[in-house]
């Protein structure tokens, strides 16, 4: 599968326009809709057509899509604008098309425009592939369902960018640790948006996504500051080029995993819940969050029903299994993720293994409808913690 991943990365880098999204139940027809086929966000209309669709009429276009550099489909781009509909889709795939089944929910679709009527399509199916793709094209899991930017687009508030630039100008180290990056991103964002603890408590689901985006913007700015002069200088040999590229990619990977924990930490502080991070449990396992903390967990007399576990993973399509062996005293393992959509079969397996997902409120619609009630939003989860802790 590494070969497909590398082809997908190269296709994005060489395409006119590229787009990515997590495959949802709505795409596969699992929600019971009349139309299956990949739904494309309205803000990405330029991927499909030269002009934006207009309400009151439909429009369509037929193209060739080369999938995984393995086979082609003659597919249809269509905009539905008649009646109450206002959406873009890709339809018409040959019989036996392998990427629109229930098991594909949660996979990452990548579509690249190579010419006016010729596209390349890829589907990545594991967390490792997805995260390596995000790292290579310089986006995060939260930047899917939109056009992949060819370069950093300065769209944030001027005050936010000025704050970021001041931070970079005053750095005394080559590259700050993840915790410092996350902290500075929040400080700049909160200052630019006059955000207080009360504002965080009003909408924690929105705020954690905003912080994740802000921190990723800051990371890219620091990266450009540190490496722009280096890549503009001719390399002595291929070995030096590869060494530099690996250094950049490895730093991106190491950053992504921990920043989510740092932002969750700040959310829980704003709500004044009792918890600890990185508590060592059986077998020297280290869960991300234990509520109320290590002392209670280590006390055999403490009521196990009042112990709460929360893991944090950017994507969870197969990595969710890693948390099932952590914190043996706690039967239900809560897992916060930015993943958009998981198949019914995987959700059933998670439930059987005692895993309950926690996702940003706006991401819940990407999961099969019959499972949404059992998925917590971040606000739901904090309410549950407060209830258990009697607050």
UniProtKB/TrEMBL annotation:
<dbReference type="InterPro" id="IPR015300">
    <property type="entry name" value="DNA-bd_pseudobarrel_sf"/>
</dbReference>
<dbReference type="InterPro" id="IPR011335">
    <property type="entry name" value="Restrct_endonuc-II-like"/>
</dbReference>
<keyword id="KW-0378">Hydrolase</keyword>
<keyword id="KW-0255">Endonuclease</keyword>
<feature type="domain" description="Restriction endonuclease type II EcoRII C-terminal">
    <location>
        <begin position="219"/>
        <end position="382"/>
    </location>
</feature>
<dbReference type="InterPro" id="IPR023372">
    <property type="entry name" value="Rest_endonuc_II_EcoRII_N"/>
</dbReference>
<dbReference type="Pfam" id="PF09217">
    <property type="entry name" value="EcoRII-N"/>
</dbReference>
<dbReference type="GO" id="GO:0004519">
    <property type="term" value="F:endonuclease activity"/>
</dbReference>
<dbReference type="Pfam" id="PF09019">
    <property type="entry name" value="EcoRII-C"/>
</dbReference>
<keyword id="KW-0540">Nuclease</keyword>
<protein>
    <submittedName>
        <fullName>Type II restriction endonuclease</fullName>
    </submittedName>
</protein>
<feature type="domain" description="Restriction endonuclease type II EcoRII N-terminal">
    <location>
        <begin position="15"/>
        <end position="124"/>
    </location>
</feature>
<dbReference type="InterPro" id="IPR038365">
    <property type="entry name" value="EcoRII_C_sf"/>
</dbReference>
<dbReference type="InterPro" id="IPR015109">
    <property type="entry name" value="Restrct_endonuc_II_EcoRII_C"/>
</dbReference>
